[in-house]
Design goal:
The chain has 396 residues and is an all-alpha fold. The chain folds into 2 domains: 4-245, Rhopdopsin 7-helix transmembrane proteins, CATH 1.20.1070; 256-394, no CATH class. The chain contains 17 helices and no strands. The longest helix has 44 residues, at 211-254. The radius of gyration is 33 Å and the shape is rod-shaped. The termini are far apart.
Length: 396
């Protein structure tokens, strides 16, 4: 189908815009989010209205040959303005300074749009050109100036965006850096697109014909740049969400050993809680962590802090670091407390108030480390065996 080289990247940018909508709806007052959303929306319009089938349809509907030319150029100029406004907001600074710079940019590019409309009205372009208008009318008065004006404004924005993304990519990491590198790559291709257009138009000025550069080389460059830029905008958002989801799922799974260890110690009301199969991962993780904390509180009277100190020393002797030793010691004390609780079905053990102590906050924060120690630590296994043997000897 003719025009797919325009519609496909336009659809990719539409997907990027759709991915930004949830964040935009929550924080629509954020100038940066507004700038990103405006840029993506204008970029979608560029590729839709620049497609030859759309150009022909617009010309036919308006009844003006080449009416699509100033329309597409104006949208391209608006895209360039959107890029620069995004640069201004990314750069940050005092809000009033940022707003003033944004207004100046919009005003300047608005003047360019008005100038292009006037130049088209003054020019003479009676022959409809769907793909090669840039070169066909390269020597036509007023049309020539309009073509150069849109190319220059587009180039300025592409260069500035490339420089900004490169500088920013040097000071950030992770998904954001990857996205910035992709955006920068896309804008480098945009500069290549402009260079090809300049070459084809300049060749016409010099009396040569290199129209194939404008009609065959430039469109693929524009499509590739759009797809890469769209990916660059989408990746930090989607990638971060996927990374967060994986981290939560990994934490939920790693807490399984500790959760199973404490099921018999958890209060009956907590153990009875059920959630839907369709419940979110956040809810599942929150419930599991709450379940574990309730189990820890229920075991508090059975904690043997001397055993904890011995297990801490043993973990250090096995080469564990400070954090790992804390997790191993807490896990050993928990495992022993579960056995002690099972050996006291009537709940006759009473610990004085001054000797009862909840788990240290650091251990409570490292639930994953405790769960790992319950599964793998030989220190925990040894503490479990000693406590089980002691329980059997006290209940022949």
């Amino acid at each position: 189908m003719e025009g797919l080289d325009f519609y496909i990247p336009g659809a990719a940018l539409a997907v990027a815009f759709a991915c930004r909508l949830p964040g935009f709806s929550r924080s629509w007052r954020d100038p940066l989010l507004r700038s990103v959303s405006a840029l993506l929306l204008v970029a979608v319009s560029v590729f839709f209205f620049a497609a030859p089938p759309t150009i022909a349809a617009v010309n036919r509907i308006t009844g003006i040959p080449n009416f699509s030319a100033p329309l597409v150029y104006c949208i391209l100029t608006a895209f360039s303005a959107s890029c620069l406004v995004l640069v201004i907001n990314w750069r940050g600074g005092p809000p009033e300074v940022t707003r003033r710079a944004s207004r100046r940019t919009i005003t300047a590019y608005g003047a360019v749009i008005v100038a292009m409309i006037v130049l088209f009205a003054l020019g003479d372009a009676p022959v409809e050109r769907l793909r090669d208008l840039d070169t066909y009318y390269a020597n036509t008065p007023y049309m020539r100036e309009m073509i150069v004006l849109y190319l220059v404004s587009h180039t300025v924005a592409a260069v500035v965006m490339s420089v900004l993304c490169r500088r920013w990519s040097l000071v950030v990491h992770g998904w954001l850096r990857t996205g910035l590198v992709l955006i920068m790559t896309g804008y480098f291709l945009n500069i290549g697109f402009d260079a090809v257009k300049y070459t084809a138009v300049s060749a016409r000025w010099a009396g040569y014909n290199l129209d194939w550069l404008s009609t065959r080389v430039a469109p693929p460059l524009a499509s590739a740049s759009a797809l890469i830029i769209a990916t660059g905008f989408i990746l930090p958002l989607v990638g971060q969400r996927l990374a967060d989801a994986w981290r939560k799922w990994s934490t939920y799974r790693k807490l399984g050993t500790l959760w199973r260890e404490l099921r018999s110690a958890a209060p009956g009301g907590t153990a009875a809680v059920r959630i839907s199969l369709w419940s979110s991962l956040d809810l599942r993780l929150t419930q599991r962590e709450a379940f574990i904390h309730d189990g820890i509180l229920a075991l508090d009277p059975y904690f043997d802090h001397a055993l904890r100190a011995d297990s801490h020393a043993a973990a250090h002797a096995h080469g564990a670091g400070a954090d790992e030793a804390d997790a191993v010691a807490e896990a050993a004390m928990l495992a022993a407390a579960v056995i002690a609780r099972d050996a006291d079905p009537q709940g006759t053990i009473i610990t004085s108030a001054d000797t009862r102590a909840a788990l240290p906050k650091q251990a409570q924060r490292d639930l994953v480390g405790m769960s790992r120690a319950l599964r793998h630590s030989p220190v925990v296994a040894a503490a479990r065996r000693r406590c089980a043997a002691r329980s059997e000897s006290s209940h022949p």
